[in-house]
Amino acid sequence: MTALIDFRSTPTPAHDRPRPDRLVQGNPARTTWTHYSAAQGDFDCGIWECEPGAWRIAFPAGKEEFFHVISGRLRIADAGGNAREFGPGDACVIPAGFEGTFEVLEHVRKHFVVVDRG
Q1: Please, what is the average pLDDT of the chain?
Q2: What 8-state DSSP symbol labels residue 88?
Q3: In the beta sheet, which residues pair with residue 115?
Q4: Cβ count near 13 (within 10 Å)
Q5: pLDDT > 90: what percent of the chain?
Q6: What mean pLDDT comes out for the span 25-50?
Q7: Which end of the chain is more exposed for a tag (fewer CB within 10 A), N or C?
Q8: Rounded distance between C-alpha atoms, residue 69 and residue 3, angstroms
């Protein structure tokens, strides 16, 4: 039988920082609580938080992310410099193939869903 995934539970967090070759500003600590990861590795969801800082992102073909900001503020700019800011209650999809800059303006916490069709 398959069980529901309850986000009120607290899985063991993973800690990391942006890759040094992608850093734009600072060296922010990031924490991820993955509540669910499909056996095939193509679907992950959970809660993510990060300190202020900025780094370049490059989503490969087939990988996309939906997120919903719980607290804090972030800004995402595309390769052309077009930027959007997101705060509590805001949601966004980062599409496959997206390249740009991810900047945490205020310590941020968000729900995330990543689909990777590889």
Answers
A1: 96
A2: T
A3: 43, 64
A4: 14
A5: 92
A6: 95
A7: N
A8: 26
12: left (phi over 0), alpha (psi -120 to 50) or beta: beta
Query: For residue 1, is pLDDT > 50?
Result: no
| Burial state string for 48-67 with b = 16 or more CB within 10 A and e = fewer than 16 | bbbbbbbbbbebeeebbbeb
31-60 average pLDDT score? 95
User: In one letter, which amino acid is 87?
Assistant: G
**Encoded tokens for 67:** 């997120």
Domains of the chain and CATH, by start: 16-116 (2.60.120.10)
> What is the SS3 assignment for 20?
helix
Q: Which two tokens stand for residue 3?
A: 């069980």
